[in-house]
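Hey, I'm writing a tutorial for new members on how sequence and structure tokens pair up, and I'd like a real worked example in the thread rather than a made-up one. If someone can provide the structure for the chain below, I'll link this post from the tutorial.
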Amino acid sequence: MTATTIPTGQLTLSGPAEKLDAAHWPVRGDLAHIRLAGKCFVPHYAVPMEFKVVPSGAKLFALNSKDSEVRATLGGNSAFNVLDMSGDWAWGQVGDDGFVGYLPLVALAAV
């Protein structure tokens, strides 16, 4: 499991929101990485689940569709931190600070 700092104490949102780069920040309209609590307002925050990419590697997509933009081609055994699984797709981030996107579930293996 990756080391994740879970915020403690009172969380507040103040001032204008920071402009986030969707390709590198693990946040979407309904969900964000727990480390973004207090920085982003979403209904749910998730602690990542650590997986690795299958040995043959995989393409990381911008959306949960093989027709969408490919953000990266990941090598086998690359770390992928899953924040959400839905249907045949996992949404998460490569390592702790890499690209954010979708991988087919068949491209992931347990650590």
